[in-house]
Write a structure and sequence with these properties.
There is one protein chain. The chain is an alpha+beta fold and about 475 residues long. It is about 15% helix and about 35% strand. The strands form six sheets. Strands 11, 12, 13, 14, 16 and 19 form a six-stranded antiparallel sheet that branches. It has a five-stranded mixed sheet with strand order 15-21-20-17-18, with no helix packed on it. Strands 1-2-3-8 form a four-stranded antiparallel sheet, with no helix packed on it. A hairpin with a 2-residue loop joins strand 13 (about 165) and strand 14 (about 170-175).
Length: about 475
Amino acid sequence: MRQKILFLLFILLASLNANAKKLSALFSYGTFYSPQQGPYLETYLSIDSRSVNYKLNENKLYQAKIEVILTVKKNEKIIYYDKYNLHSPEAKDTLQAMNNFLDQQRIKLAEGSYDLMLALTDKNSDDRSYEVTQKIELFFPENKISISDIEFIDTYTTTASENSFSKNGYDLIPRTSNYFGKNENALTFYVEIYNTDKALGEEPWLINYYVGEFQKTGVVGQLTGFSRQQAVPLKGYIARIPLTDVPSGNYELNVEVKSKANELLASKKIFFQRSNGTQAEDVSAQTVNIETTFAYKYTHRDTLKEYLNSLYPIANPMEKQFIDNQVASADVTSMQHFLYNFWNRRDKTNPEAAWLSYLEEVKKVNDAYGYHLVKGYKTDRGRVYLQYGPPNSIYESKNEPFAYPYEIWHYYRLGTQSNRKFVFYSENNSTNDFTLIHSDAQGEFYNSQWEFTVNKRVPRSGTPDFDQEKTNPQLGGHSSDEYSFPK
């Protein structure tokens, strides 16, 4: 059974206007199936009301306007395209508190693999638009039990009249974030199970759900539940999980379908993060005698700051918050505890050996990718190397006639992913500063038009067509071949 983690994207648009706000939004999607209509995709977009620019509209009220472009492609062919404006609620002035505004779309698609592209533009700003693409898959076997994507929801009510948020008798207001802060005491989710009638006949079955630590087996505390069900073509299910006593950390919500004999028939899981206290307390908790640990040997404050900053490429979001917000002012003891806790969480048998092994890799990327006063671990290539390890092959191009210097990194395996690539380029021949402009790895920046960026030296008029992904072949250019057929 295919399993996939719901894609969650935080978009931060870099402003070209110093006075303009930086548009931020949360975007997620889920795949579902209708016995009457077939497979479909749901997209969820939440715009941060504090990040948009407001202007007076024809009603003499302030309103934001975001242009949204949704495109679905299959094998470079456009299957679906929609362009529309998403308006914020009207306001008498821009000083009052305003809620984020939400958009949900449903796109009917045949089974298959697709590229989903989202483009956002603040129409009240001179800022550039932003585009991101994510690979999606819709596969729901006709006669086998399958499970939709798991959808986090903020609230739900029984449907009084059908609307865009209605589904199987409920109005579901989606939650676009998988982060649950310390003031959030519960997690609510919705999921659909298909074809139990075809697979089981009239035999009853069991839906079982539980919370486990991320990439680990077992159940966290008593965070589990089940419900006996009768066989039906489609079963929509909502459950609420208390989070009050769940400590900070990374978790997975697992949903399983089991037979009455306890045989696992289908399963699905989704990642989420819990913060139950200040980040500094969580990641640098002083629960051990630091004098008995390897971290106690590091007593120079600047050295500790450097070491902690070097952990950023492999840190989880909570640890990154500590590094961002606390390292600059933290005392030596707090940093020693952070360093020890960081590696003890990753290798309880020998945290010092794990740290020293990583430190050797940091030294390698500093030597290979650092420039001027910038450490190698702070560069895009350094981050990718430390996060994923050395690539299986690297293609370097420094002298193509119409291209900037660029590198294509190829990984045979990247966790559960296969055949993943990263493209870096530099606009300056005299520095070692290369920027990541494209990757097809999950969670990385995907840019289908990366070749236009690499080949900006190519003389051409106008701008690249929105649907065109490859440049025309140029004399001496190898980017397309090296990307498609890495050595």
